[in-house]
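Hi R.,

Here's the chain you asked about this morning:
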Amino acid sequence: MYAMRTVSLLRLLLLGINVSANVEKVIFLGPRTPTLEQVFVPPLLHLDTLSPSESSLRRQLLARFPSTPASRTLSESWILVDGLQASQRYEIRVCWIATQPTLFELSVHDLATVFRTPTLNSSIYEYFEAQIIESSSGGKKQDKPSVVDYSTTDIHSSLLLHVSATADYYSRDAALMRDGLLVDLDIILDPYLLNIFPQSLAPTGVYLVVLAILSWAISGIVWHWFRSLAHPDGQDPQHQVAESFRKKHS
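And the predicted structure, written out as tokens:
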């Protein structure tokens, strides 16, 4: 009975939570040290970085339909995920408001795979070129790819995150259907505790455990108080029936 009262209290608390955002996520393990010693990559300093110490980014992507003629770099983002521990489980979440209907696709790749796969290689170079053009004041020569030496650079703990956005709505507004919708999103890196559950859920887990213990204790106190009101003489009706039955048959 105490358990039923505790569950009821928890249900009432959970019903009060207002969900006002969408979430897409990808779960992966930290990479092991690669065997490849050198790989040609664009300057990684031009990529935004996620790490356990800098675990969130806010970005804006254009959610458009695949058939819309526009540069895909406006709907994609490449991010360097750094400072990862080998075999440690991580989660990357993309959060955006529910009033901006969008489909997000997330994928993580090691550097060697990205630059050996033609489609991924083409995508990151296009994104890199777009970033250079956007950041330059005009007419500057594009930087040449650099060589990252794994023997001297702590890059073995890095992965590349690819985020792409696609429109997921229908509107009578022809301009909106043609041009797409700019979507604000938060990108969050969340390590797992003991490779079991996300670190960000630890406070929630502690809160629920404390709440369950307090609910159990308070429900017992309230139950005994109601019983004392119903039976001020302190006699339990079941005990009285059992006692009378014993006397009757003794």
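The longest strand covers residues 181-193.

Let me know if you need anything else.
M.
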